[in-house]
Amino acid sequence: MSVRKVALVTGSNKGIGLAVVRALCKQYNGDVYLMARDVARGTAAVEGLKQEGLTPLFRQLDITDLESVRAARDFFKAEYGGVDVLINNAGIAFKMADKTPFGIQAEVTLKTNFFATRDMCNEFLPIIKPGGRVVNVSSVMGSIALSRCSPELQARFRSDDITEEELVALMKSFVKDAQEGVHTQKGWPETAYGVSKTGLTTLTRIHARKLTQDRAGDGILCNACCPGWVRTDMAGPNATKSPDEGAITPVYLALLPAESNIPHGQFVSEKTVQPCFGYSDKKAIRDHVPVGVYGNGFKSGSMRLGKDAIVFTKTRDSMSVGLLSQSYLQAIKAQQIMVPILTFRRDERNIPEDAASLDAILRHSLFNTEKELFTELRTISTAGPTGTRIIIWNLHKTTYGETEFNFNADQYDIQIRANFRERTHECCAMTPDSDYSLRVERKGVGVIGVIECNFLQPTHNKQDFDDTDKYRKTMHNLSIKLEEYWNEIRYRRKKEDPKCTAPIEDTVSCEVEEDLESQEEEQKSYPKPFKRQTKRKLSTAESPPPAVHPTPCTTFPQTGGTLIHPHSSPTSNKQESKLVKMKHKPNANMLEKMEEEKAGFFSLCDQLKCKVEELTAEKDRRLRKLRINLSHLLVPFVPDLNLQQVDFNSDVIDELLDQVIKEVT
């Protein structure tokens, strides 16, 4: 048995795998095995590298054949006592123009990219030597595919405690749903390759967690990586990277120094950890494991406002400071997202465990002393015993050198700059201020209350709701209620003090009674005056006042010619008022019915808009399919036509096809 170190690369007779073998032969102090399914191609690749002065070795391996995998495992265990570096590079992908049914694509793609790679890991991880490195070549397409999954699926993939059995069940369900043609209805995206890489990245996290639990002292690091868009048979000739450039990150992870303990269980691109799954390290403090990513509401995604932010929070018992800073991470050359968090007790004494966080905050933020931090925390007290204060710097700028947010248009507001392509009069006239302004409450748009909407489904990032029929109806009805509320506020202010010049938006609290049903309004003494006034105007416009029918009168002897009407008594006047009210009541009920019908029409319009969008998408899909089919028909007539360089979603292809057809005819 040899004592030499050994590294093996699957699927390495060409492309990225071949480039990885080339780089390892130059940099790795040990034997490097080029492994391929096809013996002839693998041997030819080895001979080509030997002509470059390199000394790779060859071993046949078909990762989709479990017997082949186990034979390779036994060979390396007997020959080297295990494996030092394992790079799972083998993978396949169908071309976008491929006509193979999607169900078959899903089965074949996941068989190689996920299930076969899982077999490799399960057979080889037990023989990985201490200090070993495992690299799974994944793709950023896995992150993109995950973002297109349903919220339920995203939650399961992102779970910190997902098991390998649960992951395998998810992958099998995708294949089954794809074969039955119901994968989109079940929340899956239209990409078998992307889903396979989502599964592979998740599998990497699971295996890293197992290695930490079962072999904590062995120092084995297991990571997934994205080589980038590389010019291979899979990606085509238009990709931006050469195979040697694509090999940089996998080789970097394979050659991490022996003393390294990070990255581990991460997704790495350009030699940098990418929190594409929304994960980052969490530390248990005083036996308390934080909830979520950091336990305080921080998100590890990109920041749009600026590169750096410091958050001051105060509760009745403690005060905290958190630094969410890209500049800090760059300065310490962090391999993963870290957020220094410091907690003070009410007596302004910090907790000893937070000493490192305090040092990081004072070194890498705008504040250099604890005194300055307390000054900001005391500022919160002016608004109450609890609260939050956020300071952002190194603001994000556009390509024109302007800050993305406009601080100059209004000194009391922060506005989002309109995109230069949208800066037209028509667009500005149609776009509500709420799309650009952070202080739109001055125009009647703001938070006036909180309603429970547990019937709506939030998106995966908790920033919005899924655009469903229930969501659209809810938003429509809320817009009606908000308009009624704002009109009522304005009406009451004008009625109470017609000469008041204070802006309506400065109203801190307006107690407006709940809008009651028509029957309840009859019992309450205070209906909404603005709404009632509007109803009266509409009633008056719809029907004239009811005529009073003539009633018999009595003529008395000539004592002054006096004519007496029975309606002149108080009882008669009350009856007449009641008669008028009865005449008006049907009109009010009719108005309520019209409002309900109006809301129904708006909902129907929303449904029709969605249907139009679906039809448009279907039209685009069929047009693209027609373009692809026509292009394939023209290839025999025009052999120089390179379909890999054609964008079938662009109208330019139509002009190209017209020219080709003219040449052919």
TrEMBL record:
Biased segments, Polar residues type: 552-561
GO MF term list: carbonyl reductase (NADPH) activity
Domain Morc S5 span(s) in chain numbering: 440-486
EC number per UniProt: 1.1.1.184
InterPro entries given in the database record: CBR1-like, Morc_S5, NAD(P)-bd_dom_sf, SDR_fam
Record carries keyword Ribosomal protein: no
Pfam families found in the cross-reference section: adh_short, Morc6_S5
Feature: compositional bias, Acidic residues: 511-520
CDD domains: carb_red_PTCR-like_SDR_c
Keywords: NADP, Oxidoreductase
UniProt feature, compositional bias: Basic residues: 529-538
Top-rank EC class of the record's enzyme: oxidoreductase
Span list, region Disordered: 511-577
Family note: Belongs to the short-chain dehydrogenases/reductases (SDR) family.
PANTHER family: CARBONYL REDUCTASE (NADPH), CARBONYL REDUCTASE 1-RELATED
Protein name: carbonyl reductase (NADPH)
Organism: Bagarius yarrelli
